[in-house]
Amino acid sequence: MMKTRKITVFDIVLLIMMLGVIIVTLYPFLNILAISLNNATDTARGGIHILPRDFTIANYTEIFGGNANLLSAFGMSVLRTVVGTITGIIASTMLAYTISRRDFVFNRPISFILVITMFVSGGLIPEYMLIRDLGLMNNFMVYILPMLLTAFNVIVIRSFMDNIPMALTESAKMDGANDFTIFWRIIIPLCLPVIATVSLFLAVGQWNNWFDTYLYARGNSNLSTLQYELMKILDNTNVSQGAVTSGNAEFIARQTNPQSIQMAITIIATVPILLVYPFLQRYFVTGLTLGAVKS
Predict the structure, then answer these.
(1) What is the pLDDT of residue 196?
(2) What number of other Cβ atoms are within 10 A of residue 122's Cβ?
(3) In this structure, are 32 and 102 located in the same domain?
(4) Which of 99, 142, 235, 264 could form a Cys-Cys staple with 216, CB 3.0–4.6 A?
(5) Could you read off the pLDDT of 163-202 as tens digits, one per residue?
(6) Do 184 and 38 share a structural domain?
C-alpha cells in the first residue's frame, strides 16, 4: 500500500507563495487583455482588473477594420522574423565556432573587437548614412543585414562552444572530417540549447522592431511591418466626442479610446511570441546557464 505524504505547514506556505508569484506574474497581462476587451466608455471609469466589465471586440474591430495593410504587414513581420532569425543564427554560430577554435590565430583580436562594439556605437546618423550609401533604403535586406551579427549573441554561443571537449573535434579530424563537417555534424547538434536561446532573442528583436521600418523602409508600403502599422494606428487614435443632431441633440462617445487601442495593440503584438516561446522554453534556461559557465 502506498503511503500518502503528509502535508506540512511548509507545504502550505510554499503553495501560498507560489500562488502569489503566479498572480503577480499573470495579473498585468490579464489586466491588459481585460481592458482591450472592455467597452471604452466603461473603461474610462476605471476599476477594470482581470475580467472585462462590459465585453466588446470594438477595439480589435477598430484596429483591423481601419487598416487594410494590416494583413500584409503581418505577413512581412513574419517573413522578416523567420529570415532574420535563420540568417542570424547561421552567421552567429559560424563566427562563434571560428573564434572558439584555440588554434585560430586571430581569436583574441576578433573577440576584443566584438566586445568593444557592445560599449561603443557609431550612433544613429552614421548608421543611417551607411544604410543609405549601401543602397538598402526601401529594400527588404535592410531588415536582415544590420541585425545579422550581434556581439552578445556571438559571445553567448562561443561560451557554450568552449564547454565542448576538444577531443570530439580532434577525433573527428583523425577520421578525416574537415572543419565544415565538424561544424555541421558535431558542433551544431551539441549546441541546440544555446541556438534555441539565441533564436528567441533574434525572433523577439525582429518581431518587435518598428523603428528601422520608420527610418529606412517607410517609402515602400510593401515593406511595412505589423509593429509599424500598429504604431501608426496608436499615434493616429484620438478620443473625440461629438453631438449628433436628429431632431434632439444626443451626446455620444466613440467606442474606442487611446487606452483601449493601446491595450489591444499590446495583445496583438505579444500573442505571436507567446505562442512560440513554449516550444523553446525547455532549451532557454539550459542554453543560458551552460553558455555562461566555463569548465
Answers:
(1) 87
(2) 10
(3) no
(4) 142
(5) 888 888 888 888 888 888 888 888 888 888 889 889 988 9
(6) no
Residue 247 has pLDDT above 80, yes or no: no
**Does residue 90 lie in a domain region?**
yes
Dihedral over Cα of 59, 65, 66, 69: its sign: positive
Q: Within 10 Å of residue 233's Cβ, how many Cβ atoms?
A: 20
Q: Which residue range is the domain that position 23 belongs to? A: 18-56
Determine the Cα–Cα distance for residues 147 and 197; give it in Å rounded to an integer: 16
Q: What is the Cα–Cα distance from 287 to 37, expressed in whole angstroms?
A: 37
Tell me the β-bridge partners of 89.
none
Whether residue 146 has pLDDT greater than 80: yes
- Cα 192 to Cα 155: distance, rounded to the nearest angstrom: 16
Q: How many residues does the chain have?
A: 295
Q: Please check whether residue 226 is in contact with residue 73, taking contact to mean a CB–CB distance below 8 angstroms.
A: yes
| Residue 266 maps to a domain | yes
Q: Identify the three-state secondary structure at position 35.
A: helix
| Non-local CB neighbours of 9 within 8 Å, separated by 6+ positions | none
CB–CB of 236/11 below 8 Å?
no
Residue of 32, 87, 24 whose CA lies nearest to 268: 32
Tally of structural domains, the chain: 2
* pTM metric for this prediction: 0.77
Q: What is the pLDDT of residues 14-24, one digit of tens each?
A: 989 999 898 88
| Phi, psi at 250, each rounded to 5° | -125, 125
Of 217, 268, 207, 216, the residue nearest 77 (C-alpha): 207
Strand segments (E) across 127-274? 241-246, 248-253
Q: Which residues contact 80 (CB under 8 A, 6 or more apart)?
A: 140, 143, 144, 206, 225
Phi, psi at 256, each rounded to 5°: -130, 160
